[in-house]
Amino acid sequence: MAEATGDEQAPPTKARPAAKRTPQKTAAAGTASSTRTPRTRSTAAKPRTPKTAAARAAAAKAPAAPETPATPVEPVVAAPEETTVAAPAQIAAPPAPAAPAAPAAPAAPAAPVTQDTVPAAAPDPRPTVLSLHGLRKRYGDTVAVDDVSLDIKEGSFYGIVGPNGAGKTTTLSIATGLLRPDEGRVVVHGVDAWAEPVRAKHVIGVLPDKLRLFDRLTGAQFLHYAGTLRGLNAKTVRARTADLAAAFGIEDALERLVADYSAGMTKKIALAAAMIHSPRLLVLDEPFESVDPVSAANVVDILQRYTAAGGTVVVSSHGMDMIQRVCDSVAIIVRGRVLASGTIDQVRGEQTLEERFVELAGGRKAAEGMEWLHSFSD
């Protein structure tokens, strides 16, 4: 023990050993050797280190709390931020091919073909040579022609067909000025046939049904008479007579009396007389009746060349095949009325002209009750 000095010294203060600081485990150190998937950043606040020495010393003495093993956390995939993305500009479609021009609005559908109508045709720009308007003709109680109206264009080869007694001959007789109608009007090349009959007949050539020829004249004399009656001079008549005789094959018969002609030759000389003055309109009633096929072919050829040059032919016939073959237009007359008229194709439709004619005329009638005809008299 040391001696005490005069002044009593205070006992020395025992030096406090420096506190050992236990380094805190950082998140990086704690996971350095771990093979676990790195955890995503936690939003929990980090523990703050005490700022004063005393606080640090107190914290050093406190036993470190055992580290709670971290619960494995599945990595959180952040949801993609919902952003408004402008819709991508629409890729312009390749330009569509130009649409074909819209067709013109179709005309109102044509009325079905009935006994009074046929499909409407496009307007014919050719001038009208013969117009029949509302023709009527009665014989007592019999109506021969009942409101017949037709317009026949220039250059047409027009056929008129119908059963026996239908009114074909009566209609053509009215059209040519041979018979006066009870009602109606006939205009020939712009001339009223009944108001100015001479002018109208000047442009018409007629082959009537019932031939009334001067049969005591020779063929040459008959043609000379027909030509001079139409105002032709003798020289022109002789030249045209020779041409017509050659065309119809009757040169050898010109010096014979017409009374000695066959039915076919009579038709030919009458047709030559109708054509000698070069009319604009020929109206021929049954011109091919009693004419042989070769002569008929020659007549058709002459008439077709005539229409090609601007003439107009109106012909009546019972031969449907002939009409269908040579005519461009047709009218079907039954019981005095026009049941169908127009071009050949319009009138017949999908049928032949004969089938269409039979249909409009009432159809075929079955022959029954004539078994006696099959028993034979011998």
Q: How would you describe this protein?
A:
The chain is built from eleven helices and ten strands. Helix 5 packs across helix 6. Strand 1 (128-139) and strand 2 (142-153) form a beta hairpin. The protein is globular and about 60 Å long. The N and C termini lie far apart (195 Å). It is 27% helix and 17% strand. A six-stranded mixed β-sheet has the order 6-7-8-3-9-10, with helices on both faces. Strands 2-1-4-5 form a four-stranded antiparallel β-sheet. The chain is an alpha/beta fold.
Strand content: 15-25%
Beta strands, count: 10
Mean pLDDT across all amino acids: 77
Low-confidence stretches: 1-10, 22-38, 42-46, 65-93, 106-117
Order of helices and strands: HHEEEHEEHEHHHEHEHEEHH
The first-to-last residue Cα distance is: 195 Å
The geometry reads as globular
> Order of strands across the widest beta sheet?
6-7-8-3-9-10
Helix content: 25-40%
Structural class: alpha/beta
Rounded Rg: 59 Å
Number of helices: 11
- Biggest β-sheet: count, sense, barrel? 6 strands, mixed
